[in-house]
Amino acid sequence: MIRIIVWIVMIIGGAILSSFIDNHLFGKIHSDIFFHVVSLIIGVLLMMLVIRISKNTGRTLAKYGRSGNLKRLETNMLVQNGAYSHMRHPMHFGLLLFPLSFALIIGSPSFIMFIAPVEAVLMLVMVWMVEEPEAIRKFGNQYLEYKKGVPWFCFKLKCLKELFKSVAKSKIIANASSPITTLY
Fold this sequence. Notes:
This protein is mostly helical. The chain has helices at residues 2-25, 33-64, 90-95, 98-106, 109-139, 141-149, 157-164, and strands spanning 170-174, 179-183. Strand 1 and strand 2 (179-183) form a beta hairpin.
């Protein structure tokens, strides 16, 4: 819940701050329809990539990271499949592009140039200071071994292709004896 609040504050706060900065530094940009159309198109395309990466990595976590009856979005198994076999934080890799895509959609030059990069750095700090220690506490030596062989992010073509591979949605069907995972 705290992470969601941080995201909301970053995005809304960034939009408010960028509006103030844009009015002082980039006053004429508000009347440039060409800039806004191009920015919107690029922003929507980038947001589609963010959503695709989030969907695929989320499905991978749901498919391989859950054993037993857990709350939604929780995992109890270390996932090393799909994009997670190439990078430890593929979902965050995609989400790093979210502030920039949002900035492009709203057409804010100051958000694009100043705020989105700062928010991306803050997200990296959160991964380093929150996500990594949490994963070590949760999975112990298994995560430490995984960490030795798999980088935070990977920019190799085969790794990036893995981010966009469709992952079948899994559905947990609980019966009287045990949960069964089916794919559809």
